[in-house]
Amino acid sequence: MSSTQQAIIAGGCFWCTEAVFKDVIGVSEVESGYIGGTVPNPTYKAVCSGTTGHAEGIRVTFDPSVITLPEIYDVFLGTHDPTQLNRQGNDVGTQYRSAIFPLDDDQRAEAEAAIERWNAEHPSESAVTTIEVGEWYPAEDYHQDYWDGEGQRNPYCLAVIPPKIMKLRKSFADKAKG
User: Fold this and answer.
1) In whole angstroms, how far apart are CA 99 and each of 71, 73, 104, 155, 159?
2) What is the pTM assigned to this prediction?
3) Could you give the number of structural domains in the chain?
4) pLDDT tens-digit map of 129-158
5) Among 107, 122, 113, which residue's Cα sits nearest to residue 64?
6) Would you say 131 and 98 are in contact if contact means Cβ atoms under 8 Å apart?
């Protein structure tokens, strides 16, 4: 049995979700990419056009003895706004939808349970997070580890990412590296 597992999630701009999950204890790798669309081998430009059906997502590799899949999903739902349909803040379009892409039936059951937990904790706001299937396509190299490089000079990232990381550190203090 492998000592790591993977989960694929989409919660808006992949630069932002990648930055959050790189700060989670037990996560060894975060890869930005595209999933859930109809066009093989999509490009960033095509996905941004909103015509491919893909979401900007991340593939998280984690150690389940340190952080469990339910905890990964809880951090995901708790660090973006799962109540916004096809958008996160100023990013609008289906490519920014809130979605979980389970890799098997067990992950599907955990995704359903996580959404139910979130809805139970937020009775006045229902999550619109979908559970979908799709083929994973890694994003272009310049999107990988974006916050650690170019993102620290990008005004959009400087406005959006630090508050998400602070939310992680406040709401999930025992899961954050920082």
Assistant:
1) 16, 11, 15, 26, 23
2) 0.96
3) 1
4) 999 999 999 999 999 999 999 999 999 999
5) 107
6) no
